[in-house]
Write a structure and sequence with these properties.
By secondary structure, the protein is α/β, with parallel strands linked by helices. The protein has three domains: about 80 residues, Arc Repressor Mutant, subunit A (Orthogonal Bundle); about 90 residues, 3-Layer(aba) Sandwich (D-Maltodextrin-Binding Protein, domain 2); about 110 residues, 3-Layer(aba) Sandwich (D-Maltodextrin-Binding Protein, domain 2). It has eleven helices and eleven strands. The strands form two sheets. Strands 3, 4, 5, 6, 7, 8, 9, 10 and 11 form a nine-stranded mixed β-sheet that branches. Strands 1-2 form a two-stranded antiparallel ribbon. Strand 3, helix 5 and strand 4 form a beta-alpha-beta unit. The longest helix has 30 residues.
C-alpha cells in the first residue's frame, strides 16, 4: 500500500540502534536478544531494499539511507516518549479526588483523614462532598465512597468494601423509656426519618417482625431531616429514635452517647468505592486496601 509502514517493532529496534550505535546496547535497552534486534534490522533492509547500517570497527554506522530514515524516526520516537512521559506524570501527579456523602464524611472519614494522608501520601487525596446521600455516577471524581445496593450500574466499576448494618438508636436518657425486649416499644417515641434513606425503617421493622401499618403511622407522625447527618445529631440530642448505618454511629455507641437497644440487622447495601468505567484500578487499589483495613479495625 502507498502509505503503509514497516512494523513498529522494527522501527523501534532501528531507532534504538541508531541512537546507541550498537545492536547489543539496543537489545539491552529493549530487553530483547541481540538476534531479535538483528532480525528486525534485516527486515527493514528488506522492506526498503537498501542497507541502513554499515559496519565500522566493532560497531555500526548509518548509511546515507539510514540517516535519511533516522532523521524522521528519531524525532517521532522522541515525541512519542515525551508524550507518554507527560501523560504518565499527569496521571501520577494529579490529585485523587474522593467524593463522599456528607454524613459518611463527617462521621467516619474525617476522624481518619489525617491517618489516611500519612499512610498514602503518594495518592495526593482530595475529598469532596457528593451532592446527595444516594451515589450516582462518579463522573467528576476519581472515586465515590458510599453505601449502595446492587445491582451495580453497568457503566461504573464497583469495589465492595463491607456489608451494611443498620440499627435503631436513641440517646442514653431516652433509652430508659424503651424496652429492649420489645421492639414495638419504640412506637411510643418520635421516629426520626430522612428522605435520603426511605428504605431503612421498613427494612429494620420487617427484620424485627413489626407491624408495617403501625410503622407507617409512626413514620407519618415522625420528624423528618434532609440529611442523615442531621438525623443522627437529632438522636444524640434526644429528639427521638433514629435509624442509621452502624458504621456511622459506632463512636457514639462506644462512648455511650447513643444506645442500640435492639441490635443491628444486615441490609442488601454495601459500602463501596465506585469508579468511572475504565478507571485506573491500580491507582485506586491502595485506597481500597486501606479502607478495608480501617473497616476491619
Amino acid at each position: 500500500m502507498r502509505h503503509s509502514l514497516p512494523p513498529l517493532s522494527a522501527l523501534r529496534a532501528f531507532e534504538a540502534t541508531a541512537r546507541l550505535g550498537s545492536v547489543t546496547a539496543a537489545a539491552d535497552e529493549l530487553s530483547v536478544t541481540h538476534g531479535a534486534v538483528s532480525r528486525q534490522l534485516k527486515s527493514l533492509d528488506d522492506y526498503f531494499g537498501v542497507a541502513l547500517f554499515a559496519k565500522s570497527g566493532r560497531g555500526l554506522v548509518l548509511t546515507h539511507h539510514g540517516e535519511q530514515l533516522q532523521s524522521g524516526v528519531g524525532e517521532a520516537f522522541t515525541r512519542l516518549r515525551d508524550s507518554c512521559a507527560a501523560l504518565k506524570h499527569e496521571v501520577q501527579e494529579a490529585p485523587f479526588t474522593l467524593a463522599c456523602p456528607g454524613s459518611l464524611l463527617a462521621r467516619w472519614l474525617i476522624p481518619r483523614l489525617d491517618r489516611l494522608h500519612r499512610d498514602l501520601p503518594a495518592l495526593k487525596l482530595q475529598v469532596v462532598v457528593s451532592d446527595t446521600e444516594q451515589p450516582g455516577k462518579p463522573a467528576d471524581a476519581s472515586a465515590t465512597l458510599a453505601f449502595t445496593e446492587p445491582p451495580w450500574p453497568a457503566d461504573v466499576e464497583v469495589i465492595p468494601l463491607m456489608t451494611e448494618q443498620i440499627c435503631a438508636v436513641v440517646s442514653s436518657p431516652l433509652a430508659v423509656q424503651i424496652d429492649s425486649a420489645q421492639p414495638e416499644s419504640l412506637f411510643a417515641n418520635t421516629l426520626l426519618v430522612t428522605a435520603s434513606r426511605p428504605q431503612a425503617w421498613p427494612q429494620w421493622a420487617s427484620a424485627k417482625g413489626l407491624d408495617p401499618n403501625a410503622l407507617k403511622a409512626a413514620l407519618q407522625q415522625g420528624q423528618g431531616f434532609d440529611h442523615l447527618y442531621y438525623l443522627i445529631e437529632a438522636a444524640v440530642a434526644g429528639l427521638g429514635v433514629a435509624i442509621a448505618p452502624k458504621l456511622l454511629v459506632e463512636d457514639d455507641l462506644n462512648s455511650g452517647r447513643l444506645i442500640a437497644p435492639w441490635g443491628s440487622i444486615e441490609t442488601p447495601a454495601r459500602l463501596c468505592l465506585l469508579l468511572p468505567k475504565h478507571a485506573n484500578l491500580r491507582r485506586c487499589e491502595p485506597l481500597a486496601q486501606w479502607l478495608k483495613r480501617e473497616l476491619k479495625g
